[in-house]
Specification:
Length: 948
């Protein structure tokens, strides 16, 4: 004890000090520890004597002091810390790190000691400090006036001291010559965690959160993988918050993105756990020893910033004790034993149930309301909201950035601008912005970095290093920064593959990637999948690989910057042409019946290839691709899109002067004419038909000319010039027969059959169609439509032969639906509806009419030459059923999807099975159904015939 016998009374400031890690220091120094301890005591006593503090107890490396003045107590601690720091110790490792705690309270000494709870509170304040740190209570801070020269007190917030139920506000003494950065105080906080405090609501992810919780509860190491911006960190934090009560020793969040040196990973974790380096001992050993007896969950975030060092540390922690569990987020897995890898999916873009919004739309709604000052999007914007989230592939960061754009754009405007994903989402975000979350216990990112560096005994980071560290926080402020974070970690082969994959619009399989690169892509592809830049989606026959749209946009930029765009996109155009060719061939390479279903999955790729052909590639190659989609465009209600692509390709030809053979131009103009007719542009239809004829004659190809001339009747029919159209059809058929290319004139045969049906020349129509059947069967691109059966069914209906009509029409419907000819299937449904109405099943007829019209409306097409006939049949059916019953049945049909409507039609009972079937009865044929000449419908004339 001090020789001073006078102990202060009243408001007394108590000071406790001790050496942090004294046991480890003694083991390290051995016999050299005693001189260090003596020097430590001498320096502290000299300080106390100078400030008139009373030394009550000295035991080992500890001091217990009392001061009658709070300012004098703080001055003593400041002087002592400076003296300890400036003293020349035998070695750097031998320097003792002394922690000091002060508290001021009312106390009276008795018998040379204090019996007061204020003493215990002071001891707990000291226990909360770290070596080199001076902490004081609020009571001391309020009475320390004035503070020592150049000193200030840093408010560390409220903390619960061990053994006390209330919370104490702690302050740290800050002054020149003292360390500033320390881990959080060692206090008994009620909630043991440092999880980031979120400033936005957490939307959706209920199923994912439940699944991830199950994995964490069952396994000691779970790694959440996903692309940048997929929501890995947010989901991990939300789950950690749920699990706080499960882990008595806490849930601790460690942001590896703040660590720029692999050697500092362990120090970053130590800083979170409140540990300081021990002299002569690796930080990893200190961590393992601390964690071994505890039950806690450590959330390692953004581990791909330092993957190797983080993996090594996690492995040591898990091996050191069974109570530690790790939840990691990364863009690539560790490959550690026992690691469970869970890949986070994008937010669901499809609604889960009737009336509920998908998670992606719900997130966009929530963030849009925030961006617009609380105003929710209008109901009219719902469709555009869904377009936006689909275009962004449900990527949470992209949706958050998109919502910010809605401060200046409508949802429709945003949806239209997303062809430039990066430019739209990153607009106005060049300047650094504050991080989106607040850390629960740290100050800012720079403070954390300083702390880690100080803990490792390093100097604070340079301004350049700080810029790197800030970029780790800011990597989620733009989509480009997010993807760049991963791209910089790729080797040359993986980076090149990522760039070249950007040319694909849809998922691709392994043979396609091999075809693109003309090399084995397995190694670089594995890297991209491991780093979550490409998603591998398994299915029965293998895997497909795809990039999220924002990543694809980034890779496309890199492709152009690398000077590889021309080569990569030309290669993609060649692949697209090859894929189109394969769609028309069987496994043995021979032609097969064209199925438009084979073209549906290629549409996105072909559009991407066409875009390149129209802007930077070969227009000739683009015309060939467009020809492959000829029927698909019209059957999917996209004739206008086909016209627009052709116009763009014509513009490219004019721009480059590329030579296009006359035969290929004739085919393109003929296709354009058909599209224009289907789109109701009859003047354009005739104009391009004439251009096609001129180019075909110039080419000198009889078959091509026959095909072009066979289409000449279409604009005449569209303009209601039926007699002239019939004359043209007969001339073309005769000429083609003479040239022995009658198969190329099949279009004219079908047009003539329709015109004969229209004016009641049923026998001639049936004879013409019978001759056309083998020709149609020999042409793979046309036989799936079964136009002969469709037209024979119409002839049978006109004759009143329900049995023949039923059989022909069902054959046509099965083939058309089986091969994807949806527009033609609508005509067949209408014909079967007539068959039902005449055959005694009027309700089914009304339903089929409603279904056919609803589908046709969705395809933006009209019934062509049959339009008046369908209208007359519906009017007659409405008169038979009555308005109410007809409308109800028609409405029921309109609610059916095309597949459901086809199933209903195929289920119609065969007439021979009816009790009153007359197929085999003797006597005259039943009278033909009325077949009046079609009246001019209201509005514009109907579009082209059904086989166009």
């Amino acid at each position: 004890m001090s020789t001073r016998i006078h102990l202060p009374s009243g408001w007394v400031t108590f000071v406790f000090t001790d050496i942090e890690g004294s046991t480890r220091l003694a083991q390290l120094l051995g016999p050299g520890y005693r001189p260090v301890l003596r020097e430590h005591r001498r320096l502290l006593r000299r300080t106390i004597a100078a400030t008139e503090g009373a030394e009550l107890l000295t035991e080992g490396d500890s001091f217990f002091l009392a001061f009658g003045d709070a300012t004098a107590a703080l001055t003593a601690c400041l002087t002592a810390q400076r003296a300890l720091a400036e003293h020349e110790w035998p070695t750097k490792e031998a320097a003792p790190r002394v922690r000091m705690g002060l508290h001021t309270g009312w106390a009276e000494p008795r018998d040379g000691e204090y019996a007061s709870p204020e003493v215990h509170r002071a001891a707990r304040v000291a226990a909360a400090a770290h070596g080199g740190q001076v902490l004081c209570s609020a009571a001391t801070a309020s009475r320390a006036e004035p503070l020592p020269a150049g000193a200030s007190l840093l408010d560390l917030g409220l903390h619960r001291l061990r053994g006390f139920d209330d919370r104490e506000r702690l302050f740290q003494l800050v002054a020149p010559g003292l360390e500033r950065q320390f881990p959080r105080p060692r206090t008994a906080d009620a909630v043991a965690h440092n999880l980031p405090v979120q400033v936005t609501t957490f939307v959706g992810r209920q199923a994912e959160r439940a699944e991830l919780r199950r994995l964490v509860e069952g396994h000691r190491l779970v790694t959440v993988l996903g692309a940048g911006g997929a929501g890995k960190t947010r989901l991990a934090v939300e789950l950690g918050t749920e699990l706080v009560e499960t882990y008595p020793d806490g849930v601790w969040f460690v942001d590896i993105a703040a660590v720029t040196d692999p050697g500092l990973v362990a120090f970053a974790v130590a800083a979170v756990l409140g540990l300081r380096p021990e002299p002569g001992r690796p930080m990893v050993d200190t961590l393992v020893e601390y964690a071994a007896p505890r039950r806690m969950l450590v959330v390692f975030d953004t581990c791909d910033a330092q993957p190797a060092a983080t993996a090594e540390l996690i492995s040591r922690l898990l091996a050191g004790g069974g109570g530690v569990r790790v939840l990691a987020t990364s863009r690539e897995s560790f490959g550690l034993p026992g690691e469970v890898v869970w890949r986070i999916p994008p937010l669901a873009v499809d609604p889960p149930a009737e009336g509920a919004e998908s998670d992606a739309v719900a997130l966009l709604l929530d963030r849009t309301a925030a961006a617009r000052g609380g105003r929710q999007p209008d109901a009219a914007e719902s469709a555009d909201l869904r377009r936006v989230v689909r275009r962004l592939d449900g990527l949470p960061l992209a949706i958050e950035l998109a919502a910010a754009r809605l401060r200046v754009l409508s949802v429709g405007q945003l949806a239209e601008r997303l062809d430039d994903v990066l430019g739209t989402l990153d607009a106005g975000r060049d300047a650094p912005q504050p991080p989106p979350v607040e850390r629960g216990w740290t100050g800012n990112q720079e403070d954390t970095v300083d702390l880690v560096a100080a803990a490792a005994g390093a100097s604070p980071p340079s301004p350049a290093s700080r810029a790197v560290q800030r970029s780790a926080v800011e990597r989620h402020l733009t989509m480009q920064a997010t993807v760049t974070w991963s791209y910089r970690t790729l080797g040359p082969r993986a980076a090149r593959l990522l760039r070249w994959l950007a040319v694909f619009a849809n998922p691709v399989d392994l043979p396609t990637v091999e075809w693109l690169l003309e090399d084995d892509p397995l190694d670089p592809l594995s890297v991209l999948v491991d780093k979550s830049m490409v998603l591998a989606e398994p299915y029965a026959a293998g895997c497909t690989y795809r990039m999220l749209d924002p990543i694809r946009a980034y890779a496309a930029r890199r492709l152009a910057e690398a000077g590889e765009e021309q080569a990569a996109r030309d290669r993609h155009v060649a692949w697209s042409a090859h894929a189109l060719e394969r769609a028309h061939l069987g496994p043995d390479g021979s032609p097969v019946t064209l199925s438009l279903y084979a073209l549906d999955p290629l549409a996105g790729e072909l559009r991407a290839a066409l875009r390149w052909c129209a802007t930077g590639g070969s227009a000739r190659a683009g015309l060939r691709l467009a020809a492959g989609l000829d029927q698909w465009w019209r059957e999917r209600g996209l004739a206008r899109e086909g016209r627009l692509w052709l116009f763009r390709l014509y513009g490219r030809i004019a721009e480059t002067g590329e030579a296009i053979p006359d035969a290929e131009l004739a085919a393109a103009y003929h296709m354009h004419s058909l599209h224009a007719g289907a789109d109701g542009e009859f003047g354009e239809e005739l104009r391009y038909s004439q251009r096609a004829e001129a180019a075909a004659r110039q080419a000198g190809d009889a078959g091509l000319l026959a095909r072009v001339l066979a289409g000449r009747a279409a604009p005449l029919v569209d303009m209601r010039q039926f007699a002239e159209a019939e004359r043209v059809c007969r001339e073309v058929i005769d000429w083609a027969d003479g040239q022995q290319v009658v198969g190329e004139a099949l279009f004219a045969v079908f047009s003539l059959a329709e015109l004969l049906w229209r004016r009641g020349a049923l026998d001639e129509a049936a004879e013409l169609l019978a001759a056309a059947r083998p020709v149609e069967a020999a042409r793979p691109v046309e036989r799936g439509r079964r136009s002969v059966d469709m037209l024979l069914g119409m002839v049978a209906l006109a004759r009143g032969d329900l049995v023949a009509a039923h059989e022909h029409l069902l054959v046509a419907l099965r083939s058309r639906m089986g091969h994807g000819f949806h527009g033609r299937a609508c005509d067949t449904l209408n014909a079967i509806a007539v068959r039902c109405a005449v055959g005694g099943d009027p309700l089914t007829g009304a339903r089929l009419f409603g279904a056919a019209q609803a589908t046709r409306a969705s395809l933006r097409s009209t019934p062509g030459i049959y339009g008046t006939y369908w209208t007359q049949r519906q009017v007659a059916l409405c008169g038979l059923l009555g308005d109410a019953a007809f409308d109800e049945a028609y409405g029921e049909g309109a609610q059916l999807g095309l597949d459901e409507a086809v199933a209903l039609a195929l289920g119609v009972e065969h007439p021979d099975l009816a009790a009153d079937s007359v197929r085999f009865a003797t006597g005259p044929h039943p009278p033909a159904l009325p077949h009046p000449a079609p009246a001019q419908p209201i509005g514009r004339p109907p579009r082209r015939s059904e086989h166009a």
